[in-house]
Amino acid sequence: MSTTNTIVLRPRFKMELKRDNESVLKEFEMAKFTQNNFIITRIDDHVFIKYPKHKQHFWSPQLHLEINEISSNSCLVYGLFGPNPTVWTLFMFLHFMVAGLFIAFSIWAYTNWRLHSNYALQVSLMLFMVIAWFVLYFAGSIGKASSKKDMHELQEFMDSIIKNKPQFEQSGFID
């Protein structure tokens, strides 16, 4: 698995297996009880794999798998690595807040410019929002980089369960 693309904060992949989806889902169900390194949750065709609370840190990743049936003897696995959904929601909220403030400050600056008033403060605040956006982006990139080892462990665990049966037909990352 290559995670070298620095733009993608939540890497995705898909692979086709020469097995029915129900057998793969059942193996993840059984893995819940045969190991204690990961917490496995299954909801319909979705499997969530994450670290137990005592092993988690702020940027701890989790792996979300969607296992869809193609035919009676093949299935398609979609995977998504990402932080805890609460962390991701906070992160996106901060991005939208910065974007909203940037738009508000730009409207305020335009209004003052049209009124021939001083608009240096508003432009400064707009520049500060651009800097804040870059800080958020690089914080996300640093968080992703700090959790690469964890992502590889999640992938190895997933592979150990999936590869108990016939090999992959195709796999690869989605941009």
What would your notes on this structure say?
With 175 residues, the chain is an alpha+beta fold. Helices cover 49% and strands 25% of the residues. It has helices at residues 21-34, 85-114, 120-146, 148-162, and strands at 12-17, 39-43, 46-50, 61-71, 74-83, 168-174. A hairpin with a 2-residue loop joins strand 2 and strand 3 (46-50). The longest helix is centred in the middle third of the chain and has 30 residues, at 85-114. It is elongated, with a radius of gyration of 22 Å. Keywords: Membrane, Transmembrane, Transmembrane helix.
Estimated structural class? alpha+beta
The tally of helices reads 4
The share of residues in helices is 40-55%
- Secondary-structure element order, as H and E? EHEEEEHHHE
User: Which geometry do the CA atoms define?
Assistant: elongated
Strand content: 25-35%
For the record, give the distance between the C-alpha atoms at the N and C termini, rounded to a whole number. 13 Å
How would you write the strand order of the largest sheet?
2-3-4-5-1-6
Oligomer: single chain
Report the mean per-residue pLDDT as an integer. 84
Q: Uncertain runs with pLDDT below 50, 5 residues or more?
A: 165-175
Sketch the major β-sheet.
6 strands, antiparallel
Strand tally is: 6
User: Could you tell me the radius of gyration in angstroms?
Assistant: 22 Å
